[in-house]
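Prompt: I keep going back and forth on a fold encoding question. Comparing notes only helps if you start from a blank page. Show me how you would write down a chain together with its backbone fold. Please set it down just below, with no commentary around it:
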Amino acid sequence: MESYFRLKHHNTNVKTEVLAGISSFLATAYIIVVNPTILAQAGMPFSGVLTATVLVSFFSSLMMGLYARNPILVAPGMGLNAFFTYSAVLGMGVTWQVALGAVFWSGIVFLILSVFNVRTLIVRAIPRPLRFAIAAGIGLFITLIGFANAKFIVANPSTIIGVSPINPALLTFLGGLLLTSVLIVRNVKGGILLGILITTLASYPLGRWWATDMEPLITWQGFASAPDFSLLLQLDFVNSFKLSIVPVIFAFVFTDMFDSISTFVGLAEAADLLDEHGEPRHVQRSLTTDAVATTLAGLVGSSPGTAYIESAVGIEAGGRTGLTAVVGALLFLPFLFLAPLLSMIPSIATAPALVLVGAFMVRPVTKINWFKMDDAIPAFLSMVLIPFTYSITQGIIWGFLSWTALKLVTGKSKEVSIALWVIDIFAILALLL
């Protein structure tokens, strides 16, 4: 294990990697329930999607750990599942079987791009100021997700967003946030994981003491349930290959590609997971893993798989090698049978970890030259649009386009590589389609 993952070289050990893997899993595990909830609205059986979600998460995260050797979990992506349900199935009127076929074909496109190293070239074409901005933007995005999960930040028709009134659940979240912060400041090993577990225990009485005016945060739905393989190989290969489905395939390709690329770049910059050339570590293998995850998702019955930004929780807990991803992958597998147990970890328990991860991921902004405005403005737009649009893809698209536009009109077109011009073309197509 030491020689394969090179633990000493990365200044880590088995205990740290295991705790990091558990932390990443706890921050990511919500997808096991959330993904089926969204895809069920497309007419797919909840239990079948749950099984598919676990299979994609397990095999893809395991491949990320053993093949790419990066501490990043892979699972069906949020945003991609919403596009699958609300845009492809409900919006365009295609069947979910055809939509699964589109997921499969987009995965094949990913694999082709990965084999010919095109995706790696795309990563290297991203200007370094944008890389730093993407890392910070993802950190802000994770923080926003954490506050939203805790219902600290809520919708407000007058001011767009607002702060929720103080209530028992919010107090529990704030207590967990303070506790986790103290553990991190005191450099307690596994502090993030301890924060999640203690906040879970603290939240348990809420469903009992205040059940009259709020839903119980923790419910018991049984101990085990049998896996449902009814969606295995239910995709429509033929009809999903028609010309009318090309926009769906392209949307999956573009969104998943830039979600995964920006996640890899952001996590690598924030956690110094870089090779000797300053590039994200094992990037080609990581992107190939992402491609396999999407292809597998179409076969087993889920929306596309992608690298998870919540992996930052485990990375901040000390995870630096593929062993972190292996541990996280193994923790997914039992939930083929034990999915009801996830109801014991409420969103307010993982929310403090997500909020605090943002504090670590904004560090790269110090590497941006904020006095060189043709670099600073595109970096700023990319950074703030990721959380403001609730989309990593939108943030990176407008970062690319504004970078190119400013360099062009200020006579610095030589700073725009050919690869970046190609990216810009696809970015514009993505906006139009």
Notes: Residues 2-162+239-339+360-364 form one domain. Residues 50 and 169 are 27 Å apart (CA to CA). Residues 210-218 have pLDDT under 50 and may be disordered.
